[in-house]
Write the structure tokens for this entry.
Amino acid sequence: MNEQEFAELAAGFALDALSPDDAQAFERARQAHPEWAHHVEDAAETAALLADMAPAVPPPPSVRAALLAQISGDSQISADTGSDIEISSATGLLAAVQGTADSPVQDAADRDGEPAEDHGDASPTALPATTGAIAVVRRRWTRGLLALAASFVLLVALGFGAASVNEYLNRTPAQVALAAIEAAPDAASVTAEATDGGVVTARWSPSLGQAVVVTDGLPELTDDQVFELWVLRGEDVTSAGTFEPAPGGETVALLEGSFEQGDTIAMSVEPAGGSPTGLPTSDPLVAITTDA
């Protein structure tokens, strides 16, 4: 086991998400490499940060009902066969999300409307395929979780606090698009002043087919007004969405619909909900051509 693999397992250890095999491997490596102990401490601190950052969200009632029904069904199978099959909430949750039942008894009952036959000791032989599939899915999910948790450990180690990580995770689609555009090799931008005050910067990437506008210092609007973006392509004028500026700060708005190099991006003040005619009802505050 190398140090990177140990760091991933340390994240799982902090989250109490290690399988028995991984837990044993983790402990062996922990004893063999005391110099890696800082990964365990970092993971524990990050797990505490994640607990503080994540809001409590109740599951949908349908998932809860399906989960309880699946657990009840698995319990009945175990009781009827006298086997030591593990009743796993992860199995029930997977079945609930997929909208299917993994129980072989239920599958048999659904075919031809006939109840499943009681085969006595033969019943447990139908279970390994499902149990193995669930184990594979659970293991892949766990590994993905460990890698994600390890990423959070790295972010914290690099100096990103809980607030920074939370801000990154809660970016708007416009902010995500802006980051992608800025990272694109063909990214371009033009800045212009709006007629009623404020600065508007259009940023775009022809290869991504996306554009955003970044505004700052725009005039305040009344409650029944919004800013609306427009794309002018030849003789066609198309609405590209509405937005409201953030109070006292920079606002990033994503242009809806398609974007092509050479389009002109314009912005006007419109009634709340957008122009009722589908065309600008006021003079544009700014118009930026993307020929650059």
Q: What stands out?
A: The first strand starts at residue 188 and ends at 193. The chain has nine helices and eight strands. The first helix runs from residue 3 to 14. Residues 225 and 271 are 5 Å apart (CA to CA).
